[in-house]
Write a structure and sequence with these properties.
The protein is α+β, with helices and mostly antiparallel strands. It is 28% helix and 20% strand. A hairpin with a 2-residue loop joins strand 8 and strand 9. It comes from Oscillibacter valericigenes.
């Protein structure tokens, strides 16, 4: 699969997940809201179908679980998940769609989905959990999936020393976890510090774009292209939302003491983005004199 197609798939998937999970959240606050088990499966199914997966014919189908009938908003998705072996439910035939989905439950379902779709992700082992002080709390039924998730960079507990497998998955975590699934894992990136005197100031921002002021108070010219980087913050780490394309030729030069207003539109990206609530960072890279330089600004969508 080509990189452009894969990136479009990933961003479509994130959008589907973030929108679908809102309806099943246990808490109303954005980003930190807990995602329900039903909403998790429903979002995964919507993204699966949107990206070429075969939809299930649920009309006339028997209830996949005793608490999920044709009246349920999750009926079609859970028919698919049950038939695919992604969701098994609890003893007695219940699925408990309104209950929060925990990290280890999510890991198990993502692991099973990866297996059914032959995604190229490596298997994990208990060695992957050795750096966590609560590794012994991971039960046998989820351990293989948790090891796999940690090994492939698909685990976000907000802690460097605790897995917290029983904690609920938030809407924000859900988008990153499933995005990572299709990127064969994704680690947080480090944003370099800007040289002193080179700044990027936020003027205004919205779900569809932002206006910033690029200021050069150094003694050298700053040369840069039209491309920019966009990152989202999850659990203290920055995760890339687009690729800052390499410029074939420098398009703009900002001389010493000069400033320029920049207007960015997320809809100009391949995935035509509308940003959900969260904390973001936008960066511009170029050369200051003859040295590589990057300047960035953070902003929040509320």
């Amino acid at each position: 699969m080509g990189r452009r197609i894969l990136n479009s798939w990933i961003m479509c998937l994130c959008a589907c997940l973030l929108l679908a999970s809102t309806a099943g959240a246990v808490e109303p606050s954005a980003g930190t809201a807990e995602v329900s088990r039903g909403a998790f499966v429903d979002a995964l199914y919507d993204a699966h179908v949107a990206n070429g997966g075969t939809p299930v014919v649920s009309e006339g189908s028997a209830a996949p679980f005793r608490d999920v009938g044709s009246w349920s908003p999750y009926f079609e998705a859970l028919c698919w998940a049950k038939a695919s072996g992604i969701a098994g439910g609890y003893a007695g035939g219940a699925f408990r769609p309104s209950a929060p989905v925990t990290r280890q439950q999510a890991a198990v379902m993502l692991y099973r989905y990866a297996q059914t779709t032959d995604l190229p992700l490596e298997g994990g082992s208990s060695r992957d959990l050795s750096g966590y002080r609560d590794a012994d709390t991971v039960p046998g039924w989820s351990r293989e999936a948790v090891c796999w998730a940690v090994h492939n960079g698909l685990w976000y507990s907000g802690s460097a020393v605790e897995l917290r497998p029983d904690a609920a998955v938030s809407q924000e975590e859900l988008g990153v976890l499933t995005e990572c699934l299709f990127q064969s894992g994704m680690a947080a990136v480090s944003l370099p510090a800007a040289p002193e005197g080179l700044t990027l100031e936020l003027r205004q921002c919205s779900t569809t774009g932002a206006t910033l002021l690029l200021k050069n108070e150094t003694e050298a010219a700053f040369s840069y292209g039209a491309a920019y980087g966009l990152y989202r913050q999850v659990n203290g780490g920055w995760y890339e939302m687009n690729e800052e394309a390499a410029s074939i030729a420098i398009l703009y030069t900002l001389g010493p003491g000069e400033s320029r207003e920049l207007t960015l539109h997320w809809g100009d990206m391949e995935w035509a983005g509308v940003l959900p609530q969260g904390t973001y960072c936008v960066s511009k890279s170029g050369t200051l004199g003859d040295q590589p330089a990057t300047v960035s600004a953070t902003f929040a969508i509320r």
